[in-house]
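Researcher: Quick test of sequence recovery. Tokens follow.
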């Protein structure tokens, strides 16, 4: 039984994620199902995030407090960003991320939690140096964001006023990612989570495929 569970964690969950995102690509590329893709996107994000954190190894008050702080801080920053255009540049959210509060989708805070957690887990796999983990994870998130910013308008998630995000968007991403990774390291939140690392990579490839299709066709 234990070997079966370990196999599912190691192989089953990533394969399931690949299947989910493969179906997502099919729905996105078929004109008749494009609206359905946009409709189910926020629910898919919630579903895969729940699966990810069901594999978290050490749930305690400290971990919950850190993850809740990331959600609240990121959500408030996004509200300020959308309202003022001063932090990330002028942008607005579309319908692709679902229900909004103050023009910001609720799932955006959940997305910040996942990306910080997963990027931290990826870098932590290769080094135990706190500074390298913090800076490396923040840099990895910026690389991820560079691709995601190209895909977001195509998926009706968000769009910048001038189509391309300004430099301060990436600066803010890096600074926020630094802050959140510092919290993870200070409070020793364990991010060893194989499915989380896999989902980060699968999502990154997913966005690359969508952007590449747009550029080619």
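Model:
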């Amino acid at each position: 039984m234990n070997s079966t569970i370990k196999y599912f964690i190691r192989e089953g969950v990533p394969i399931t994620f690949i299947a989910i995102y493969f179906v997502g690509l099919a729905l996105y590329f078929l004109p008749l199902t494009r609206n359905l893709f946009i409709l189910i996107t926020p629910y898919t994000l919630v579903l895969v995030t729940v699966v990810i954190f069901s594999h978290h190894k050490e749930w305690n008050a400290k971990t919950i407090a850190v993850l809740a702080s990331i959600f609240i801080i990121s959500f408030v920053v996004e509200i300020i960003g959308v309202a003022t255009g001063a932090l990330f540049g002028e942008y607005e959210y579309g319908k692709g991320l679902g229900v909004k509060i103050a023009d910001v989708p609720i799932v955006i805070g959940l997305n910040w939690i996942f990306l910080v957690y997963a990027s931290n887990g990826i870098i932590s796999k290769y080094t135990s140096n706190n500074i390298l983990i913090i800076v490396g994870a923040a840099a990895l998130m910026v690389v991820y964001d560079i691709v995601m910013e190209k895909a977001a308008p195509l998926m009706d998630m968000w769009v910048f006023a001038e189509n391309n995000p300004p430099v301060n968007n990436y600066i803010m991403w890096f600074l926020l990612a630094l802050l959140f990774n510092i919290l993870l390291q200070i409070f020793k939140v364990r991010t060893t989570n194989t499915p989380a690392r896999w989902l980060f990579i699968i999502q990154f490839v997913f966005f690359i495929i969508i952007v590449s299709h747009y550029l080619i066709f």
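The first helix runs from residue 2 to 29.
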